[in-house]
């Protein structure tokens, strides 16, 4: 997904920094993004880093700022992560830690480093700002809000059997965005606009490089519950995500089913637009999802009694 997001943002005129561990993949993704550039002034860079380390996250933000003419990036998009689907009691204990580090801590660490940089400027930054204020006309344009974007999953709204190592990590991201949505109001850019606006993307199945490997790991009951295996390409997810962000949405789903599931469990999360549509759909989906849960529970019970099976050849396809 990150590769496709980088290309799309390049096509919209952005300069892009890519961060990952694998240097050959970074080099390929950088070339892919560069091919989408529309202005000669756009710049592209990559940084190899292990974001499961908080020190590495801090280094990435410092290096990004240095490369960007000593200015922090305006947008930080966290989309690192992997899925290891398996039944809870069949999952190696070490995998719980690995999933939490990959899917939650990578985002939490880079977000913390970014917010430290954005909201706690150094003394030299404050001095530069004061000098700028004293020499700039009062009509000068105010700086724009920065954007912090997380990538969760629809399993944060409705987990399925077989995702117990994975779904709690994505639910944690949803909890983090809900918390930051309120907490960042402490740091206004203007009386009506925060300095940093958080967002979270909730894609469903993505036909990415890791999808086939994920399917090889999935318990057969998980494949049964997921149904016909519909999903989106990384490009489709990137396009739907950016459309939602451009509409100003805080919580962004990338396809209709995910949007309906989201509406059934919004709780205190910030609604899209005026919230009227989400609320009306939510009233209906509460009843629909109650039936869906009953139907899936029935399937799982039958599976446990051996009354429903899926050929292993299908489960591994």
User: What is the radius of gyration?
Assistant: 21 Å
Percentage of residues in helical conformation = 40-55%
Q: SS-based structural class? A: alpha/beta
Total number of helical segments?
A: 12
**% residues in beta strands:** 5-15%
Q: What does the overall shape look like?
A: globular
Largest sheet: number of strands, sense, barrel closure? 4 strands, parallel
Q: Count of DSSP E strands? A: 8
N-to-C SSE string, H for helix and E for strand? HEHEHEHHEHEEEHHHEHHH
Strand order of the largest sheet: 3-4-7-8
Mean pLDDT over all positions: 87
* Unreliable stretches covering 5 or more consecutive residues: 123-140, 312-317
Q: Distance between the terminal alpha carbons, to the nearest Å?
A: 22 Å
Describe the protein's architecture and organization:
This protein is α/β, with parallel strands linked by helices. It has twelve helices and eight strands. The longest helix has 29 residues, at 276-304. The model is unreliable at 123-140 and 312-317 (pLDDT under 50).
Topology readout:
Layout: H1 2-11, E1 16-20, H2 23-34, E2 44-48, H3 54-67, E3 75-77, H4 93-119, H5 123-135, E4 146-151, H6 167-183, E5 188-190, E6 193-194, E7 196-202, H7 211-217, H8 220-226, H9 234-246, E8 251-253, H10 256-264, H11 276-304, H12 312-315
Parallel strand pairs: 1-2, 3-4, 4-7, 7-8
Antiparallel strand pairs: 5-6
Helix pairs in contact: 1-2, 1-9, 3-4, 4-6, 10-11
């Amino acid at each position: 997904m990150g590769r496709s997001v980088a290309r799309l943002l390049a096509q919209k005129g952005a300069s892009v920094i890519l961060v990952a561990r694998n240097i050959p993949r970074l080099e390929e993704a950088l070339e892919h993004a560069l091919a989408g550039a529309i202005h000669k002034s756009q710049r592209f860079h990559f940084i190899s880093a292990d974001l499961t380390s908080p020190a590495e996250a801090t280094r990435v933000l410092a290096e990004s700022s240095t490369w960007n003419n000593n200015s922090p990036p305006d947008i930080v998009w966290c989309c690192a992560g992997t899925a290891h689907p398996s039944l809870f009691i069949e999952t190696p204990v070490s995998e719980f830690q690995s999933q939490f580090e990959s899917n939650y801590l990578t985002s939490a660490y880079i977000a913390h480093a970014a917010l430290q940089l954005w909201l706690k400027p150094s003394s030299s930054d404050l001095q530069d700002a004061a000098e700028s204020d004293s020499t700039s006309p009062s009509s000068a344009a105010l700086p724009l809000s920065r954007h912090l974007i997380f990538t969760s999953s629809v399993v944060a709204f409705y987990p399925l059997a077989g995702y117990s190592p994975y779904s709690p990590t994505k639910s944690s991201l949803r909890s983090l965005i809900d918390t930051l949505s309120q907490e960042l109001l402490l740091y206004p850019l203007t009386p009506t606009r925060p300095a940093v606006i958080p967002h979270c993307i909730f894609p469903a199945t993505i036909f990415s490089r890791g999808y086939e490997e994920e399917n090889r790991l999935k318990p057969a009951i998980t494949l049964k519950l997921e149904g016909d295996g519909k999903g989106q390409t990384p490009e489709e997810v990137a396009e739907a995500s950016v459309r939602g962000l451009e509409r100003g949405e805080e919580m962004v789903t990338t396809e209709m089913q995910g949007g309906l599931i989201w509406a059934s469990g919004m709780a205190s999360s910030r609604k899209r637009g005026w919230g009227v549509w989400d609320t009306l759909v939510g009233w209906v989906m509460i009843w629909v999802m109650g039936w869906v849960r009953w139907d899936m529970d029935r399937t799982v019970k039958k599976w446990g009694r051996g009354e429903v099976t899926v050929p292993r050849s299908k489960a591994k396809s």
